Amino acid sequence: MEAISIIVPLTIAIRASNNMLMTTIPLLVRYNFHFSNTLVGLISALMAMMTFISSGFINARVKANVRRIIFIASSAVYAAIFPVFAFSTPLSIWVLSAVAGFSLGFLMPNVITSASLLPDRVARERLLNIYTLSLSISLILGPAIESLILRYFGLRESFLFFTAFPILALAMAPFVRFPQEDGDRHAISTRGVVTNPGFITAVLNIATYNVVFSFLMAFGGIYARDSFGLSYSEVELLFSLFFVTSFLGRLYLSIRPAERLWPYMAAAVMITVVGVSTIVLTNAPLVYAIALLILGIPHGTTYPLSVVSISRAFKPEHRNAANSLFFSFMMLIGIITPTITGYIADLIGIRNTFIVLIPPVIVALVLLRRYVKSVDKPHE
């Protein structure tokens, strides 16, 4: 219960504010600063790139005692910089996004690791599923709150209101558990992590969805506003709707943790293809909302299955390195996807760009089938 009382509010605080940045910065730079789709994609990629650097190249390599200090310091930086977005300019928004992304690279991987420290496999996987459930709660709560704020205030002011979340994260940061490490005998090389079949399974699995998710976060709101004339408040309400079915998927996995991962992973890809195809084939706001509900389901199941895959494949003392590199690979997808798709969207439009997302998802599924066997039957 102690772990839950720390992990749940901290996760909600970090993820709600992080998602707010992901969805609101594209709207701010598009409609206040008049950025093109290419520039919208680049600023989304910049934040992901800085998270990739801090998570994969720094957090994955430092020891637990140093990592704890960096974790608390990053929480402070994140809380301090968040309200400054309200006063950003077309130039400073790049710097602010870079600093926020860099700070986040030290936050989420350590929360994941803290949630995976329980020795009992069933209890550990249940806590990990509760952790991912907390992510979904924050992703419903965040856009819903922002939708209400945007009914009465502008995009800039919403950053001031949401500063409460980073402040909560800073207050909780000192209480996060870090794994005990006994010198260098527990060290694992980067190669040892990235060649582990369980790690490859986690990365390929998250790739089957994060390609679509990265594009949705960067351009889903712009598409809804340009195509259907929705207000900022209605756009955020759509995002909240998307995360409702994500929450239901994670709730199911929290109650009934998956023994075999492959059936869930394969089903998630099929549902993703259906959701993306629905957006491409029909141009109506109601159908778009239904498509987001469909796409929320694989969003809800894909991430927790990847986290469980890592927890099954690595010893406790190796999970920080694995989680940090996994998080950095997620960010790598977040760098590549908006960079490429932003340029494509300028050429063929956002709606048609959804078609481009389907082939990479299918390729990742084919590769995934080869590696998932290593973690599909958990060891007691």
Automatic annotation (TrEMBL):
The keyword Lipid metabolism does not apply. Gene3D superfamilies: MFS general substrate transporter like domains. Keywords: Membrane, Transmembrane, Transmembrane helix. It comes from the Archaea. GO terms for molecular function: transmembrane transporter activity. Residues 4-376 form the Major facilitator superfamily (MFS) profile domain. Coiled coil: none annotated. Pfam families: MFS_1 (PF07690). The chain crosses the membrane at residues 39-57, 69-87, 93-118, 130-153, 159-178, 199-224, 230-249, 261-281, 287-310, 322-344, 350-368. PANTHER family: QUINOLENE RESISTANCE PROTEIN NORA. This is Major facilitator superfamily MFS_1. It comes from Vulcanisaeta moutnovskia (strain 768-28).
